[in-house]
């Protein structure tokens, strides 16, 4: 396993992605979809961890259209301010095109066996949900996605696992209820609620990090990918 940089070309320009490779020469791939802090140490650690579990893991720089190479933390007021500026400037539709380009690049990689999943957190959680509605991803995992309730008219056509923080400050109870009302009956969707947990409970070092539920969500995600991607 080693971290490397990959350049992905699109009709709008090129962007980079952080790549971590497993020891196996041929493996399923997982696209890691960033939070609002860019491809930072937390995202790279998640990418490395997936490679350690046997996946070709790729984390694309989805803020490249605004500013390439964003790498900030949640540890200062200035960084939070910048993160929300990026969140507000982000074009979701363009981001989904970039994710599809990343999925295509993963499938074209000699180290990929053709199966590609996605996992996203926060903003990335919304984007992971949308990969299950708009892309040809084989399976998607969404952690505390923000704004999913605004996209519930879209058809989930690929297997989707969702982790919902019951006390999420960015996902109100009404939004959570709407998600359950629409998606609970969908056989392609599996939703887990985490009572007492706030947004980003799985972000190491974050204000709301909970080691127990982060581990539980991680184990569920890996079991899901094993079942859907092999």
UniProtKB/TrEMBL annotation:
Pfam families: DLH. Its EC number is 3.1.1.45. One of its GO terms (molecular function) is carboxymethylenebutenolidase activity. Keywords: Hydrolase. It comes from the Bacteria. Residues 15-227 form the Dienelactone hydrolase domain. This is Carboxymethylenebutenolidase.
